[in-house]
Design brief:
The protein is an alpha/beta fold. The chain is built from five helices and six strands. It has a single domain, classed as Rossmann fold. A six-stranded mixed beta sheet has the order 3-2-1-4-5-6, sandwiched between helices.
Length: 154
């Protein structure tokens, strides 16, 4: 069975994930450290998981449980890399599929951004999600879940 794990603290596409999971009969785990209360989904296939506060505690919970048949929705590049190491699929909230071919440059870019912020350069944050981003995400999520399910069945 394919499950979907959501890095829940800052995920703007939870409702979209719920719709896909409902349609396909998948379980969803929304993992949060509780720093921002997340409203319960009210769906029997969605489990809200609150882990203790601390750096990477939610990421650790996901990385310890995700399998090659699963999908992680995250914009956290290091978490995406950890999921890829377990042969799982990782997808950003804008619909970008993280792969072994693109994760290395994404990690390097993240490190450059961190360094720039440390020396005082304003790097800005992510742009707000557009309708096109949400549409691209839904399409990408459906594609990646179907691929995971096919691979699981093979």
């Amino acid at each position: 069975m394919t499950d979907i794990f959501i890095d829940g603290d800052a995920c703007p596409v939870r409702e979209e994930v719920y719709r896909v999971a409902d349609r396909l009969g998948l379980k969803v785990f929304v993992v949060s450290n509780g720093s921002r209360p997340i409203r319960p989904a009210g769906r029997p296939n969605v489990t809200m998981v609150t882990v203790s506060a601390g750096a990477d505690v939610a990421d650790d919970w996901i990385a310890e449980r995700i399998t090659a048949a699963d999908v992680c929705v995250t914009s956290d590049i290091p978490l995406a890399a950890r999921c890829l190491e377990k042969k799982a699929r990782a997808l950003s909230s804008t619909g970008k599929l993280w792969t072994p071919d693109n994760i290395g440059s994404a990690l390097a870019g993240r490190e450059i951004g961190r360094h720039l912020r440390e020396i005082g350069v304003a790097t800005g944050g992510p742009a707000p999600l557009t309708k096109q981003d949400r549409s691209r995400f839904l399409s990408a999520l459906d594609t990646v879940v179907q691929a995971a399910r096919r691979e699981r069945a093979a």
